[in-house]
Write a structure and sequence with these properties.
This protein is mainly alpha-helical. Helix content is 67%, strand content 2%. The chain is built from 17 helices and 2 strands. The longest helix is centred in the middle third of the chain and has 32 residues, at 196-227. The chain starts with 8 loop residues before the first helix and ends in a 9-residue tail after the last helix. 39% of the residues are buried.
């Protein structure tokens, strides 16, 4: 079997520079997969950080393309009686105040939901996720390509390794890269470690150290994606009023009602509806951000405890550095109980879940599978957006 050649450093840089966020994300996902396979060819079939990053990047693509966000919001709207009642009540009061003719209350309520325009509303979430995806790949994907370039032809010398380490910034994240330096040192140790348990612990330690760095760097982007208003409050309220009073006659009625003080009920109803729309939009973002799709249709809900336990060689940890790191970030030692993250914007919650996910899945060979089919990969290599479900 010919050796698996890793993506070149220049390819990583070219993908990072791609200005089109949807295509860039798809290329990042495929490149992570290729980096993952090249690492596994050196360390054995153990999941490395790029293995998990492949599927995290693919999931991020759902948010970047906004497809599942819009579908999730539509489902929440349909399944939430309070939302339907708020829309119908707002429409009914508006018809009474505005004197509009020719539109039923259900029709007006439907028009209100269409006015929400979820694809446009989620653009800020998409932008934040795309920036985070690019930032992490441009830094960590680049370092994996640098590391793998040393091993593509022959075993590097000690001097070459020191030159690699010298390219990493000292200090802690978000600006320093101390954890990346330590992680690549663990990967290097794992290459020649004959004991399978010791090698699995080194791989797990390296994965968690990179995850610690990555999640610290991503914190501002995750906060922005989850906490920024999905809708601009004033703009949303103006748009709703436009839908409620689309004709000059209805707007005249509203103006007269405003002058007489009778418009207050419709404004209050509109505000209740706008607040409900904002709440459901936040739920849609939270649900999307706290979901991770894996191969063969597996879906992890990040707010729920992991179901898979640890493999036999990782149930008890011997590596002292790994033990020390787990004491910092894992409040439920040697157990998947309590791994579900209550708040994905909380860095400690994310690190706890990620550390146990890495520990539970380091031997999962399915994660090394391809994220896209051959025709989609061919399109990505030609700098085209692939067809079919992504």
């Amino acid at each position: 079997m010919p050796p698996i050649l890793p993506p070149a450093i220049a390819e990583v840089q070219q993908i990072t520079a791609n200005p089109e966020p949807v295509l860039r994300n798809l290329q990042i996902t495929q490149c992570y997969h290729e980096l993952s396979l090249a690492m596994a060819a050196l360390t054995g079939p153990l999941a490395n950080w790029c293995t998990f990053a492949t599927w995290a990047s693919k999931q991020a693509g759902q948010s970047i393309r906004q497809e599942d966000l819009a579908r999730t919001l539509e489902r929440l709207i349909q399944d939430t009686p309070d939302a339907q009642q708020a829309a119908q009540a707002t429409a009914a009061i508006a018809l009474e105040v505005g004197g509009e003719q020719g539109r039923s209350v259900p029709g007006a309520a439907q028009a209100l939901w269409q006015a929400l325009n979820p694809l446009a509303a989620f653009s800020r979430v998409s932008d934040a996720v795309a920036r985070g995806n690019r930032k992490v790949f441009g830094e960590i994907g680049y370092e994996f390509a640098r590391f793998l370039a040393l091993f593509s032809a022959s075993q590097p010398s000690a001097l070459q390794l020191e030159e690699f380490y010298a390219g990493l910034q000292p200090g802690d994240p978000p600006d320093g890269q101390r954890y990346l330096r330590q992680a690549f040192g663990r990967y290097h140790q794992a290459l020649s470690e004959p004991n399978s348990k010791a090698r699995a612990e080194l791989m797990l330690l390296a994965n968690i150290e990179i995850g610690f760095h990555e999640q610290t760097r991503l914190q501002p982007d995750i906060l922005e994606a989850m906490e920024a208003p999905i809708y601009d409050p004033q703009q949303l309220r103006r748009q709703l009023m436009h839908e409620l009073f689309p004709s000059p006659e209805s707007r005249l009625h509203l103006w007269m009602a405003h002058l007489s003080g009778q418009a207050r009920p419709v404004l209050d109803a509109r505000d209740r509806f706008a607040d409900e729309a904002q709440r459901l939009a936040r739920l849609a973002v939270t649900e999307q951000m706290m979901t991770l799709g894996l191969p063969h249709g597996q879906v992890l809900r990040l707010g729920q405890d992991l179901r898979a336990g640890f493999s036999a060689d990782l149930q008890q940890i011997d590596n002292p550095d790994l033990l020390a790191l787990l004491r910092l970030i894992d409040p439920t030692p040697d157990s998947v109980a309590g791994t579900g993250a209550e708040d994905w914007s909380s860095l400690p919650d994310r690190l706890h879940f990620i550390a146990d996910l890495f520990r539970a899945r380091v031997h999962d060979g399915n994660l090394l599978g391809p994220p896209f089919n051959p025709q989609q990969v061919e399109a990505l290599k030609a700098n085209r957006r692939p067809e079919g479900r992504l």
